[in-house]
Structure formats: structure tokens, C-alpha cells
Design goal:
By secondary structure, the chain is mostly beta strands. It has five helices and nine strands, in the order αββββββαβββααα. It is globular and about 65 Å long. It has an eight-stranded antiparallel barrel with strand order 1-2-3-4-9-8-7-6. Bound molecules: manganese (II) ion.
Length: about 200
Amino acid sequence: MSDSLKEYKEKRDFGETPEPEGEITGRRSFIFVVQKHAARNLHYDLRLESGGVLKSWAVPKGPSMDPKVKRLAVPTEDHPMAYHDFEGVIPQGHYGAGTVIVWDSGTYRNLKGDEVSLGENLEEGHATVWLEGEKLRGGFAILRTGGGKKPRWLFFKMKDEEAMPGTDILVERPESVKTGRSLEEVAEQEKPTDMKDFS
Ligand code: MN
């Protein structure tokens, strides 16, 4: 990484001057979220902040902390940043109708380097990130497999000290990290009022 403060620092003796030594600042961690979505089919939506939006994939079988388990991830449309903490019920008859919980959330770092754009990695079809979630932690890879009109990706845990071989995090930790609620509790508590009256 080039040090654009090099000249500034070389000109000063910070033991003698009251001026700040300073450092290059920039965002090194970004938002990620995995939402559990009971739509027509239960699935998990992986979203990674990139370029001011949430790049998104539907992961039908959900994430795993076991490096042996590689999960299919199907790209979906970019979502706005504000979606990262959405939890509630999408009404019947609307796109994605069903219940959504914030299954995991936190920050990620790009394992290819702080100065590397995840967006470029995704264009190339190969990204590795370090997740700091409440459930998902450590290195994860997301790789495009094949191209064509309907590209498919694989999302999986990399081998590192955070890996948990032989475990099923989906079973161990089914709840929302935002409210602690289950999908069923959110469905019951958040359902549209016009449905409450008649159920
Ligand atoms: Mn979804």
C-alpha cells in the first residue's frame, strides 16, 4: 500500500512538533447481513456491502461454519443499505411475500486487502472476506461457478481457527440476532393488521 502521508511524515519530527502524526483513514470494515426468509421456499439471503449497496445472493440451504460444506448461492438484485436490519413480514401478494429475520449481521473485511474493492473481486467472480458476525466468523469465500445467463456461486467457510467442522449453525442458532425472535414469533407478531382480524 502506498503511503500518501510519507512526505508529510518525513518533513516532521513528531517528538519535537505538537502537530499530529496522523494516519491514513478509510473504511476497512463493511456491513454484511444474512436474512432468513420464509418465502415460498425457506432460504437465507446473504448481503455484502459494496459500492453503497448490498450485493445479494439467495442461499437455499443457508451458510455453514463447516469448511467441507459448500453452499449454492444464487445472485439476486442489489438491495439498499437500509435493508440490512429489516425484519418483518412482507404481505401476501407482494414480491418475496413471507417472514424475514436478521439471522446474522456484523462487519466484514476484504481478505484480498484493505485497498481492494470487493466490487472488482465480485466482477472477477472470486471474493474472500473475513466475517465478524454473531454467528458467522472467520474467512469465507464466494466463487462464481460457470457463467451464462444464470451464473451460480458457491459460498463456503474457509479453513481457519474459526471453522467449526461437523456443526450446523442453522440448527444451533435459528434465532434473529436483532431481536432474539424465531421466524414463527416474527410471523405472529408482525403480521399485517388486516390479517390479525381474521385469523
Ligand atoms: Mn429472500
